[in-house]
Amino acid sequence: ETGVTQSPTHLIKTRGQQVTLRCSSQSGHNTVSWYQQALGQGPQFIFQYYREEENGRGNFPPRFSGLQFPNYSSELNVNALELDDSALYLCASSGTSGRATGELFFGEGSRLTVL
Amino acid sequence: QQQVKQSPQSLIVQKGGISIINCAYENTAFDYFPWYQQFPGKGPALLIAIRPDVSEKKEGRFTISFNKSAKQFSLHIMDSQPGDSATYFCAATLGSSNTGKLIFGQGTTLQVKP
Predict the structure, then answer these.
(1) Of the candidates B24, B15, B105, B100, which has an alpha carbon nearest to the alpha carbon of residue A43?
(2) DSSP conformation letters of B41-109
(3) Which helix (H) or strand (E) holds B30?
């Protein structure tokens, strides 16, 4: 069973640029959630995708957008990067059983630095 | 209120001791309370979870105590080991159908000294 994989692991961008982060969900999981974890803080929910549709969104501006593909992999896109976007971006997947037990399976994250 | 408040921010415990981390919430609609463990460079991993219809859940050395009237819950790590050194996050969510939308506490960095 393959776990949640994210790419890239680290990247550096400058203010105003755009970034795309990618996530492959765990085998059999059809739900993907994205979280932003600032240094020394708990993860904050960005949004969730279920069967290719956005299924809930946290308090993040529209320049944060996402996609889910038919194979349940997902992308997080951030436009017009700001310094405060520097964080660890975590992808988590859950399937039908995950929704029942509540367990999210997290990837190791993509560390974004905005200069 | 959608916040979950966690304390302490950091904790140092001797090997074999008991580690206790506390969380408080405001929204009485929350009905699922997991604890996640995160090692440096890794994503969080589910440690143990509880629903508000029980007051305590134990899995090995890890116990959640839940006080619904006080809107508080805590994690107890018995016989703490150096391998338990990590950051611990409590979380809460609304409804079993929304388990992807967790609200996390600020985290507690635990150091267990040999």
Answers:
(1) B105
(2) TS--EEEEEE-TT-SEEEETTEEEEEETTTTEEEEEESS--GGG-EEEEEEEBSSGGGTT--EE---EE
(3) none
Shortest Cα distance from A48 to chain B (angstroms)?
7
Mean pLDDT rounded to a whole number for chain A: 91
| Residue A22 pLDDT exceeds 80 | yes
Going by their DSSP bridges, the two strands A19-24 and A74-78 should be labelled as antiparallel
pLDDT in tens, B69-82: 999 999 999 999 99
CB contact at 8 A, A85 and A76: no
**B11: contact with A, CB 8 A cutoff:** no
Instruction: Identify the H or E element spanning B39.
Output: none
Of B1-15, B55-69, B84-98, least confident by mean pLDDT is: B84-98
Q: Phi first, then psi: what are they for B46, rounded to 5°?
A: -60, 130
Contacts of A36 (CB under 8 A, 6+ apart): A43, A44, A46, A60, A87, A88, A89, A90
Whether B33 and chain A come into contact, CB under 8 Å, resolves to: no
Number of H helices, E strands in chain A: 1, 11
* DSSP secondary structure code for residue A85 in this structure: G
